[in-house]
Protein 1
Amino acid sequence: MMEQTYPYKPQAGAVKLTMLLGGVVFLLMMVFGLALRATQGGLFEIDPAIFYQIMTAHGAGMVGSAALTGAAIMWYFVGRYVNLNAAIYWVFLGLFLIGVALILGSIFYGEFGGGWTFLFPLPAISGGAWDVEAAVAFCFGYLFIGVGFLLIYLDMGYRIAINYDGFLGGLGWRFAWSGNQELAPPPTIIAAASVIVFNSIGIVFGAMVLVASIINLLFPSFVVDPLMAKNAIYFFGHVFINATIYMAVVAVYEIIPEYTGKPWKTTRVFALAWVAIVIFVQAVYFHHLLQDAVMPDWALALGQIVSYASGIPLMAVTTFSLCVYVKGSGLKWDLTSSLLVLGVAGWTLGSIPATIDGMVAVNRLMHNTQWVPGHFHTYLLLGEVAMAFGFSAWLVRGKEQGIRSGLERFAFLSYALGGAGFVLVFLWSGASSIPRRWAIHLESWQFQDRIGTFFAAVAILGSLLIVSRYTLRLMRKGEE
Amino acid sequence: MTIVLAAGLFALAAITQIWVAADPVIHVLVQFPLLGLSGYLLGRDRFIPGHWVGPALTLAIFFFLFWMLPRSVDEALANWQMHVVKFITLPLGTGLPLALSWKYLPPVLKGFLKAQCITMFGVLGFLYTHAPVRICNSYLVDDQIRLGYGFFYVACGLSIFWTIPVFTGRQTQVRRALQGTHLS
């Protein structure tokens, strides 16, 4: 194993606690997801109103835990290169938990079931399913989480600007422009600076539309332009969920070199790829609006073209580099390395159905089918979550690093195969035109729903073992 | 020199009083900032004990929020007492305490306040352009919408103005700024 020294010591305690919280919430949300699929498959009955509440909790909870674990990973590794303020992280965690409490309260006490995307004007026109107060509490929950993210981004951004000659230096743009290797920041800093830029912009748009929605909920005569609101929501939503993976991939850049013995280098191509990511991840959001015929043609065309382009930096740089680093390195497959490599594979493979759905002609047919949850579950369940689990396993690693026990092998295989089966059934169902987000399914769709439920249960078993292992090791380390 | 400049800005703000009753953009986006800036200049090179930083910042935020209220804007046109209060509190209640406290604030809090300021201008822009009623009784709906767009432009301008130095700032410059704030 390669040992490298860094200028600063990361804030391990708070990050370990975060990963525990994230792991437990992931598990709980997976059980919610299992309940949704089982209900669609007719295996048991849930009242449709409760189905949509659980669906909202599943969506918001998964996005929230992915963002939380991604932020923890990024904070941990950025803390190796710059001196971060530990208090800011605790404030972030506190704000995040306040936000979670508001969101859960709005759903399970206030009966809010408008989906994690809170698409205007649905929160305001529930038809009596939930009160305005519940929708307001849901929006405030998001605002608290957004403020927390802005705080940690401010601290990381400020420290990066100080240490790397301004943000242009931290982003690697000075290096990309000049090719001067002395100006090259570590890959982690480039990734973190890039995420800070595009996700801060996304959160600002999210905050703007959330405040507008809250005002509309409280004073309905303040009417928001629905198309403007949809643009702002999908810009925020797209950027935010993608940022979770871009934050988590830092774990791959930092941990895999310990296994391969080769440091992850900042090359000019790497820096340029991240320049492209900063632009593409924002410009591509139009592909969520391909069914909105009132959108300008150029916007929809841009959505399709950038959808093609946005997979290139990912595949050409992170995936290709990973293959090059791993090949011939004698990498030992333990739980950490297996999950991190799975994370990159899932992310890469998930971008393929996403790109297909980003084509106007396909989207016209597939947008409201299970193809869509198929692609985002691929790069979240087999991508971000796998990276987060891999990072957690690395955090509690012992001297046996590089060795995989029988139980660990079983946990990994059930997670990977269960997850793969689960997303493939979603994609198959989408290709069969089975709609998404429907609480009640026709009998002819339920065969696929039941297979999906089975694979979900297998993936949950794997997750349970991975999270339990992490918790036990954390407790054992705490006793030591 | 600074006092002369502050006095000059205050005088300029006083001159704009001729147009404030007719145009909310001049009232809120020209006169208010001029008054605040004149107070800011007075406090820029002055220092206060550390335990005064919190109260000074709180005072500045209080009056900043107070003058964001449409009711306050209306009152400043409707009666002379509020007129006087405006000319006292914007320079001495907002600009001056902000300048006195700003140099002591940690960078993350500064960034947070800037982000909050941009967001609030955005929210005001939304309110003034979407309100189904006249928010200020003293101004017409068209003027209100114009002011709303003005808030949006200010939000965009401040975003650019505050972001560019972060991107281009050189290490030495930032360190020098840090030393100036007694935080390094």
Protein 2
Amino acid sequence: MSSTTQTAPEARTDIKLPVLERETLILQGRSYQWITERVCGILENKQPLLWWWIFIPCSLMALIGVGGGLVRLVATGVGIWGNSNRVMWGWPIVNFVFWIGIGHAGTLISAILFLTRQHWRTSINRASEAMTIFAVICAGIFPAFHVGRVWFAWFLAPLPNANGIWQNFKSPLLWDVFAVSTYFTISLIFWYLGLMPDLATIRDRCKPGLRKMLYGLLAIGWRGGNRQWSHYEMAYLLLASLATVLVLSVHSVVSFDFASSVVPGWHTTIFPPYFVAGAIFGGFAMVLTIMVPARAIYGLQDLITMKHIDNMAKIILLTGTIVGYAYLMELFVAYYTGAIYEMDAFKFRIAGPYWWAYAVMMSCNVLSPQIFWFRACRENLWVVMFVAMCVNVGMWFERFVIIVGTLARTWLPGDWKTFSPTLQDVMLFAGTIGLFLALFMLFLRFLPCINIAEVKWTLKESDPHHNDPLIPPDPGVTLIPAYQKEYSKS
Amino acid sequence: MTPDRKRIYGYLAEFESAAALYQAAARVRDAGFKHWDCYSAYPIHGLDGAMGIKRSILPRLVFVGGLTGFVTAFVLSYATQVVIYPTVVQAKPANLFTIPAFFPIMFELTVLFAGLTVLFGLLALIRLPRLNHPLFESRQFQRVTDDGFFIAIEALDPSFDTQETHTLLAEIGGANIELVEEEDDDG
């Protein structure tokens, strides 16, 4: 019997494989044109009054908090920031880690979910990448001014000083400089590359004039030819793979700042994965915090569907559980190693003067996401927003517990102190929140907040073979209709 | 080349859907054209094959870019820490065994250089920025970034013929066939 004469066995028709249908990502069978109109409409029409109600207070907050705060800080000296004391020193670092962590969800959505072919990312990736960039800008303010004399901040760059001495490349702080600046650059490239076709869309819709010229300049002459798309898609894939390893490394390097020291409570190997999971956890909460209201205000329910929110809620549940595991594992390892200093550090965190911060962290980060096990909670936008807010607060307190809760009791009793924030601390933190939201409002106003080209690509008719008569439906399969929660009111 | 001829950019034809564009692209490819392109608002998967486009060479450029970053970081950290001015901080030595401490920076610069190569390599390969293009003269071409599907065959192509190419485009389902002309500033 030769293999060439063998025919494939007859397909059995009596067995039907049940296959769950994929949920539609864009509801109500919207057309290409509808997508273009709806997304470009946001920046072409007048903004709703609410936009001004958010933008003006936020920009004032940014102006007074960051602008005024930094002027006062530089003019007076870092002493007013409490930098002369090691415990007081902690707040800006808390904010730095908080903001840099927020950014991670954007990169996760744009890079890791791209590589894993999660098409639902297309509706939310643009806004979360913008969020990444604004969060990293907010984060960058803190270390730049924390160096003391900001006009010497260029000492961070790999350049020799007057005595020919170079930076210490063995120091995690310098690793951090490289990690964060690379992260910002790559995020910016990724964001811009994604924006290019959409900027061309806006350019082509503008009437001739200054506006068309500006968007035309930004779109650098994109024409949408397949010879361009072919290279473009390859570039996007490459950047996604680079950003995937990058996003896992950035917060790992941030955690090295702590983990490579010899301070009890910091010197643990669990820090890098624990920080990365926490960053993604906090980042997704921020994406929800921003996108749930934006979706309602601009009527994007058919593009950002309940399916998207459901998926994000599930990621929050997963990463929140990982974070909870890390919290418990930290305690277990402290107990199991029998290192008394390690144990004391954790006892101090749980039962010391900062017990309330520890309690907030535990309840917001570990307990609150657990209600996402229930479908009804993931489908109720108020519950989703409530949990997202809890996580935002909880993740800030996590960094507070880790940093201040440890610095307050280090090896030298002379350093022991109870933390209280200075005016400068509060101003700068509030200012960065204002700056972040104001930048995001400007983004909504001037750039397409949804990736138009990629969303169009997810439509059924975008596949050139979707109605091909040569490819009949598989007879061995029974399609089970997908569970799809739709909001009829839009 | 006559001055009149110089002004013609080529033919632009519209197609009704991604599937129609895909079918038509294969026909244009088989007709032996080289200077032509399909235009759409989003990347159509499989169109590269239908057009006969080879895989992008960008990954090779990026590999070289990444390697450059890796070597740069290694040289930068090793030379400054071990060769030029060895500094002993926190009792950490400055010698061959210090190299693991340079890994994070080597990694970061690899990613940074590779990422920059992606951006600039892409721009070089797709020949952008180029703010002006004859196709922008066409009114219907403005729909390309919205919901239009187009094929443009350039007059530059040796197989191009004002009559025959028009017939071909009409045959494969092209609508609104338009002769796109360049603004002849030199003439």
